[in-house]
Specification:
Layout (H helix, E strand, L loop, with lengths): L5 H15 L5 H11 L8 E3 L4 E2 L5 E3 L3 E3 L4 E3 L4 E3 L4 E2 L4 E3 L1 E2 L4 H7 L3 E2 L2 E3 L4 E2 L4 E2 L4 E2 L4 E2 L4 E2 L7 E4 L4 E5 L1
Parallel strand pairs: 1-4, 2-5, 3-6, 4-7, 5-8, 6-11, 7-12, 8-13, 11-14, 12-15, 13-16, 15-17
Antiparallel strand pairs: 9-10, 17-18
Helix pairs in contact: 1-2
Length: about 170
């Protein structure tokens, strides 16, 4: 169940701002990220700074995770990462959407959260965007600059706007 505590959100964003402006060494960054994101898993989790998140409490790591610089995690809903996941620079993962109907959007101001799940051994190329509700299967590779609007199976190479399966791997 996603955590959406506004007071905690502000505190974590301020901590993130300070981390993003730091000149810490890699080991200090890893320790700071583990505390900030409340990472409990075994294995290395490293996100090159700077990066951004919405809440910071709805990112779940299975271990051996790496994200290159300038990644964005809109974690209004849960983002679940399998083991051995790699993200290129400027990957964006969204879990929040809004009603398509303009009246609903204006009157209710609803945000609709749909979790994103990324399987084990996935590599997402730089500049890719993962949309709400997507599940990316294990061992899948996403080509750089792709926009993933639908779930993808295990063991495929997918690329494009919108991302389509190119071939099995």
């Amino acid at each position: 169940m996603p955590i959406r505590d506004e007071q905690n959100r502000k505190k974590k964003r301020e901590q993130l701002r300070l981390l993003n402006q730091s000149d810490y060494d890699r080991e200090t960054i890893i320790a700071s990220e583990r505390a900030l994101l409340e990472i409990k898993t075994e294995g290395t989790v490293y996100i090159d700074i700077p990066f951004q998140f919405d809440f910071g409490t709805n990112l779940h790591f299975s271990g051996n995770f790496y994200a290159n610089t300038d990644c964005l995690f809109l974690d209004t809903g849960d983002i679940n990462f399998g083991k051995n996941v790699k993200l290129g620079p400027r990957v964006q993962i969204y879990t929040v959407n809004h009603p398509v109907d303009p009246t609903e959007r204006l009157e209710k101001g609803l945000a609709i959260a749909s979790p994103v799940t990324i399987g084990d051994n996935v590599w997402i190329g730089g500049g890719s965007i993962i949309n709400p509700g997507v599940v990316i299967g294990a061992n899948t590779v996403i080509g750089s600059g792709s926009v993933v609007t639908r779930s993808l199976p295990d063991n495929v190479l997918a690329a494009g706007v919108p991302a389509k399966v190119i071939r099995e791997i």
